[in-house]
Specification:
Elements (H helix, E strand, L loop, with lengths): L3 H48 L2 E2 L7 E2 L3 H7 L2 H32 L6 H13 L2 H11 L6 H8 L14 H26 L3 H9 L4 H12 L1 H16 L3 H6 L11 H10 L4 H26 L8
Antiparallel strand pairs: 1-2
Helix pairs in contact: 1-13, 2-13, 3-7, 3-10, 4-7, 7-10, 10-13, 12-13
């Protein structure tokens, strides 16, 4: 006959066995992702960090270079220019992209039978290949046969040579990037808007609050966590811009659109300066990490997670 203390002990062992099996299966399901992260993120990161201290052109044996690659980068006038171009691109893409996406999300959040169709239409550019998008926008920006200058001519404006102008090439890329990522930001904002209870708006209307006050006092504060997420993701992706630069301008004219990743690509695969390019990649990683940490630190002052 099994005593009560022994029965409790057996029950605890059974519970622990079940919990162990659940944890084991959980890690087994995560194993492909863990292998992928270590294979394609952490391992290349460590290799790039180590390679940044060497001089290597692929064809000859590597030579230890110490910190000379990093010193050379900060003395490189071209790198300083592409770094400024990257900051310009980030500053032009992120705030404007978030602002436009928020306006569209608020408009689409109104009850409508066609709201799902509108969401799908706005999300279409997100799933399109950036290569295909860049080629289409190259035609739109064509100074002689492009659709944009054709439309501007109807209102008496002579359109510029968008991609051939040092003044307009970067704004042209910013427009393409905002258009491409708009749908993703809209969907995220819509999810945040639909999570705000209607009772807050009803109470505000009863108190006589205007539509603007409702947006400023209710919608924006309760969307702060969503806005923070979109801001972090947008900044990280904007620092890594490459496809549209490579296809549409190849960094020109006069390197006015060349950014860090594009210059890194040129040093690695055109000039075969692998150590120099690796050091550049490490600096880019440090810059993205620093900006992200500052955003997380500052988020405590304006992000609210509770409703």
């Amino acid at each position: 006959m099994v005593t009560r203390p022994l029965r409790r002990k057996l029950k605890k062992r059974k519970v622990k066995g079940i919990a162990y099996n659940e944890v084991l299966w959980g890690y087994l399901f995560l194993l492909p992702n863990i292998v992928g992260v270590f294979s394609f993120i952490f391992f290349p990161l460590v290799i790039a960090l180590g390679l940044s201290f060497f001089k290597w052109d692929i064809l000859t044996p590597s030579v230890f270079f110490g910190l000379k690659n990093y010193i050379k980068i900060f003395q490189d006038i071209t790198f300083l220019k592409v770094f400024r171009n990257t900051i310009y691109y980030v500053a032009g893409t992120v705030p404007l992209g978030i602002f436009i996406a928020l306006i569209f999300a608020v408009a689409l959040n109104r009850a409508s039978r066609l709201i799902k169709l509108y969401r799908a239409i706005y999300f279409l550019p997100v799933v399109c290949s950036m290569i295909a998008v860049a080629i289409v926008w190259q035609w739109i920006y064509n100074p002689e046969f492009g659709f944009l200058n054709f439309v501007l001519s109807f209102i008496g404006i002579k359109g510029p040579k968008w991609l051939s102008s040092t003044q307009w090439a970067m704004p042209a890329l910013i427009i393409v990037s905002i258009w491409k990522g708009l749908g993703f930001n809209i969907v995220i904002f819509l999810a945040g808007l639909q999570g705000i209870p209607d009772v807050y708006y009803e109470a505000a209307r009863i108190d006589g609050a205007s539509a603007w006050n409702q947006f400023w006092r209710i919608t924006l504060p309760l969307l702060s966590s969503t806005t923070f997420f979109i801001t972090v993701i947008s900044v990280i992706s904007s620092f890594q811009i490459f496809d549209q630069v490579f296809i549409m301008t190849d960094g020109g004219p006069a390197r006015s659109t060349s950014v860090i990743v594009h210059y890194l690509y040129q040093n690695a695969f055109l000039y075969f300066k692998m150590g120099y390019a690796s050091a550049m990649g490490c600096i880019l990683f440090a810059a993205i990490l620093s900006v992200t940490l500052i955003q997380v630190w500052r988020a405590k002052t304006w992000v609210h997670y509770g409703i």
